[in-house]
Write a structure and sequence with these properties.
CHCR repeats lie at residues 549-661. Helix content is 35%, strand content 27%. The chain is an alpha+beta fold. It is rod-shaped.
Length: 661
Amino acid sequence: PEEDSEEEPKLKYERLANGVTEILQKDAASCMTVHDKFLALGTHFGKVFLLDVQGNVTQKFEISSVKINQISLDESGEHVGICSEDGKVQVFGLYTREGFHENFDCPIKVVALHPQFTRSNYKQFVTGGTKLLLYERNWLNRWKTSVLHEGEGVITNIHWRANLIAWANNVGVKIYDISTKQRITNVLRDNVSLRPDMYPCSLCWKDNTTLIVGWGTSIKICAVKERNPTEMRDLPSRYVEIVSAFETEFFISGLAPLADQLVTLFFVKENSDQMEEEFRARPRLDIIQPLPESCEEISSDALTVRNFQDNECRDYRLEHSEGESLFYIISPKDIVVAKERDQDDHIDWLLEKKKYEEALMAAEISFKNIKRHEVQKIGMAYINHLVEKGDYDSAARKCQKVLGKNMDLWENEVYRFKTIGQLKAISQYLPRGDLRLRPAIYEMILHEFLKTDYEGFATLIREWPGELYNNMAIVQAVIDHLKKDPTNRTLLTTLAELYTYDQRYDRALEIYLRLRHKDVYQLIHKHNLFSSIEDKIVLLMDFDKEKAVDMLLDNEDKISTDRVVEELGDRPELLHYLHKLFKRDHHKGQKYHERQIGLYAEYDRPNLLPFLRDSTHCPLEKVILSRGLPIFLEPCVFAMRTYIYISFCRCLSSIHHWPPQ
């Protein structure tokens, strides 16, 4: 078929081959009918072949020496009716060969069995030549014939559904109700200029009450309805309402229902660019949506059937299998099967059009866990496409979805990304949970980053669990790089993180202190490294005095005050530490209160007097009676002496009303 490159086709096609190929090489197809279980093919040389759905011959009947005009099967597929151009009519059981055999003196164009022929006691069927004849077997097992209609030319088509028989002659289409024995409509032929033998009428039932009529370029949809009893009088109990009528661009060769749409086979004539005369083009199979007075084209495919240049409109037929939505396009030298495209076909089309994202989504919805390999196949095609486009990040991101738990595929992709120099692109999407790759894979990527991107390397070390790779190997690699760039803060920080994971906290702490890194206190607390910082108190104070003092005071049981005082000596940080210690508890650090006085005097005079006032362990007599104190202490001593005198006087006053007036 000729397909629009942008619009997805609705149908897919294949030739009916095997035994059919051999038949049509020597003979030509004249008609065919379709059952859910098998096919029945009639030829121009008077033969009928029963075929399986693949086209293999299962039975052959020599009916006549001339063209088979029509084959009819009942719903059970057990009885067949056949008529031919030389007037032969045969109705028989496929498994019994008992039935009706008659020769008429005129061509019989059509035959139709009652849908329930096998089950019915009456064994009814109709034939169409110049008359519409009803045959039924009576209680004496004899065939009774009734003329249902005549006088309007040759009957070219008959379709029997439930109790309704529809037929077409030169004038139009009529419907007969076998249950009431009433003819209930007459749908006239629109284009009377077309020869009915060259452009025959196409009929098909959509359901038990909806008949579709195609003739020339006209389509009518007829709904059989029950008449209101009050309106009957002498009228039939049913009537027909034409619910849709419209013209088509090409000549109709066949019709079939597809849900609420129509499958239409068109005979196409086109004008030649070089000559004014028309030529026969490839037939078209369209899906159309009928509207009340027009139709909407859903899809249109031009079919390359064999010898289409030699065929007329009457040479094509369209038959369908209701059970599987299969449509058979019959022409003298070719039979093509059209089938609705399924989800697999939809996905194949998306892949063909490089719409990989849509194909992957469709596959996941369709296959779920049943065909995981199919989803991966589609996904790999998508990844390949993205790599070819140079969209490496998107390709790497898709690996998570497509490769899933297949570690072999993962490793293959990693090496492919290495080959094209894109290890960085795939690094952030690698498995890192319960399922993981070999350590060598992760180490390869870390080494790649270490060569070209220190920041990216540091990010991976932070994000990847340490058990993914050999920690010692990576530590050594970082140390080697630090030899070339010993002050690189990113490498040093990353090395500290590696040491931390390896539980070499003292080395990590050393680096953090050297870098004055904010995480140093968190590291100490988290891993209880207080024994490791006893000789690093000055460094901690230099980094952040407030955090250091708070940490030391909060952990006096781990680092004693004596140890802190020893490490800090007479540095100003010692006063900060002792001052906060005194604020927390006036009695702690009492043995250093005398020393604190000198520290206050040197570094924080405003807090000296409050300290002297609040401390009960400060040797005040030494302060008050001391001689030769530094001059800056004299105001403090004087203030202290004054404070003691006033306090003493107030005490005596409360007891003896002293001093006297």
